[in-house]
């Protein structure tokens, strides 16, 4: 009986289905399996199913099925059927046929790089803890850079690929992750028997749903750099199949949120923590270790005027430059709006609210710390402002600003989102208080070694500072119903700040977008 079963679902992975009309994806995969496994001592089997291909790939699979290798055994076992376009269904059919105690599903547009990778996979599972159920190998883009070594789903940054964009050898150690991408899904038979078949209602992202189910049953998933492969997904033309049509993505998002009660792309972590309390789904202590309600409570600020953020700002040139860049960003956003009757500054009882008010901006600063508010009022009591005196409001509820719906023209989230335990919840609240056509400005200073700097260490341990890059922020804003706006701050700061703006659409549009993202 084989230890490893390799499953290949195929639909139109021949050369005529590639973007240049020449790249023979299925042959790349089959040849790479031959080259990396021909003398691998592991017992294995290769099973393929063609889902009604209309290009050359069906004939290619049939030809390889006639080949022999490894003690004159058939190279692969092939079945064929009429096209249905449901990858989960094809996967379930292949699983029903296979006999290995480790199952590896490979997309037809992948290419294996690691010699003897089946033996390596066996060794990794055998040496791991008994609850290690899924392994995510290192997926490379055709450029040679890392695309993913597993994914995080329930994370302050939302759904994202571990190591995305880093150099090939940047990740050198295994990392526990939420799930493995389906293009190379390595799972123990015990998991499949325990969790059951893939959900055939999902046209895309079947393994994301499966990863949630496996986690709930107590199985762990680890991204591992010991096995490498290339995924050529972007080199393939769009195909006339259910999963590749534009409507499939929206349907998948809706089906996932209906089933699980949270977005698969931008999950509200407080909702997840409440819904799945005391379950293995909340395995990640770095994300769920802090009880809701304590996450945004800042440290008590000393009352000694010799050691405050006010005196540090007065003497620290770097702090001064960073504060000025935030003032500049707020003023640029206000200028774009034309008129601002209220600008809300979150976590804002400090010098920045004072500096903004000095520039004539009507500021309402909300803050979790009443002592900080009292201190700020003391320091600014003698100041006069060209427009309105800044207003300070205590925020007793960490999930809700003490403000009415649609009551702010401008919401400023400075140096807050990148370390907040639930950025989705914070941005959702910012959207609530922003008026239609109002702006939310997100800005932070990436610390050295953060994921935003693209360092390997940050990619492997991205949870202290979430590492939001501008593209990641814009993507998050889009999924939460904002119109994203890229922006730059032209300031002489030691490290370039990360900044993005989101415009809340008109009321009806915002409601529609919010319901789709939920």
Quick summary:
This protein is α/β, with parallel strands linked by helices and 518 residues long. It contains 17 helices and 21 strands. The strands form 4 sheets. Strands 1, 2, 5, 6, 7, 8, 9, 12, 13 and 14 form a 10-stranded mixed β-sheet that branches. A 7-stranded mixed β-sheet has the order 17-16-15-18-19-21-20, sandwiched between helices. The protein has a two-stranded antiparallel sheet with strand order 3-4.
Describe it.
It is a single chain. The protein has 518 residues and is of the alpha/beta class. It has helices at residues 25-37, 57-65, 87-97, 117-127, 189-195, 206-216, 246-260, 269-275, 285-288, 309-315, 317-337, 351-358, 370-380, 423-433, 456-460, 470-479, 507-517, and strands spanning 4-10, 44-51, 68-69, 73-74, 77-81, 102-106, 110-112, 132-140, 146-148, 151-152, 160-161, 175-177, 184-188, 220-231, 343-346, 363-367, 391-394, 408-414, 434-444, 483-486, 498-503. The strands form 4 sheets. Strands 1, 2, 5, 6, 7, 8, 9, 12, 13 and 14 form a 10-stranded mixed β-sheet that branches. Strands 17-16-15-18-19-21-20 form a 7-stranded mixed β-sheet, with helices on both faces. The protein has a two-stranded antiparallel sheet with strand order 3-4. The model is unreliable at 291-307, 450-463 and 508-518 (pLDDT under 50).
Helix share, percent: 25-40%
**Can you tell me the overall shape?**
elongated
Q: Biggest sheet: strands, sense, closure?
A: 10 strands, mixed
Q: Please compute the radius of gyration using only Cα atoms.
A: 26 Å
From the N-terminal CA to the C-terminal CA, the straight-line distance is 46 Å
**Structural class label:** alpha/beta
- Strand fraction: 15-25%
Low-confidence stretches: 291-307, 450-463, 508-518
């Amino acid at each position: 009986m084989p230890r490893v079963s390799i499953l290949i679902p195929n639909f139109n992975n021949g050369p005529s289905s590639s973007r240049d009309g020449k790249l023979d994806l299925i042959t790349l995969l089959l040849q790479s399996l031959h080259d990396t496994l021909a003398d691998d001592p592991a017992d294995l089997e290769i099973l393929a199913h063609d889902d009604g291909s209309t290009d050359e790939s069906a004939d290619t699979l049939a030809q390889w099925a006639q080949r022999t290798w490894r003690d004159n055994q058939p190279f692969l076992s092939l079945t064929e059927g009429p096209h249905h376009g449901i990858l989960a269904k094809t996967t379930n059919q292949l699983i029903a046929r296979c006999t290995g105690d480790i199952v590896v599903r490979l997309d037809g547009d992948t290419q294996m790089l690691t010699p003897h990778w089946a033996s390596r996979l066996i060794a990794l599972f055998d040496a791991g803890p008994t609850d290690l159920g899924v392994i995510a190998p290192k997926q490379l883009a055709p450029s040679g850079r890392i695309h993913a070594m597993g994914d995080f789903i329930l994370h302050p940054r939302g759904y994202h690929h571990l190591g995305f964009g880093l150099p090939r050898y940047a990740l050198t150690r295994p990392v526990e992750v939420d799930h493995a991408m389906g293009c190379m899904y390595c799972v123990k038979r015990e998991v499949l028997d325990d969790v059951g078949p893939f959900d055939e209602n999902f046209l895309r992202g079947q393994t994301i749903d499966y990863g949630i189910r496996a986690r709930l049953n107590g199985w762990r998933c680890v991204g591992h750099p010991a096995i490498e492969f290339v995924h050529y997904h972007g080199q393939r033309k769009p195909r006339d199949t259910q999963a590749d049509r534009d409507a499939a993505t929206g349907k998948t998002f809706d089906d996932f949120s209906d089933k699980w009660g949270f977005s698969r792309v931008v999950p509200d972590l407080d909702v997840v923590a409440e819904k799945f309390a005391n379950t293995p789904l909340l395995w990640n202590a770095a994300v769920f270790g802090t009880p809701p309600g304590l996450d945004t409570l800042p440290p008590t600020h000393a009352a000694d005027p010799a050691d405050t953020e006010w005196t540090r700002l007065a003497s620290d040139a770097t702090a001064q430059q960073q504060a000025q860049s935030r003032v500049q960003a707020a003023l640029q956003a206000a200028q774009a709006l034309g008129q601002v009757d209220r600008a809300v500054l979150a976590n804002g009882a400090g010098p920045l609210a004072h500096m903004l008010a000095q520039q004539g901006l009507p500021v309402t600063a909300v803050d979790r710390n009443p002592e900080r508010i009292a201190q700020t009022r003391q320091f600014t009591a003698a100041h006069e402002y060209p427009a309105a005196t800044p207003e300070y409001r205590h925020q007793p509820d960490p999930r809700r600003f003490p403000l009415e719906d649609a009551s702010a023209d401008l919401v400023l989230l400075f140096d807050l989102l990148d370390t907040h335990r639930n950025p989705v919840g914070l941005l959702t609240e910012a959207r609530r208080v922003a008026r239609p056509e109002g702006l939310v400005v997100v800005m932070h200073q990436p610390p050295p070694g953060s994921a935003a700097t693209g360092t390997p260490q940050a990619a492997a341990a991205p949870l202290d500072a979430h590492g939001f890059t501008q593209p990641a922020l814009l993507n998050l804003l889009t999924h939460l119903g904002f119109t994203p706006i890229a922006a730059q701050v032209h300031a002489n700061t030691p490290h370039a700040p990360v900044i993005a703006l989101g415009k809340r659409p008109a009321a009806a549009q915002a409601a529609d977008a919010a319901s789709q993202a939920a």
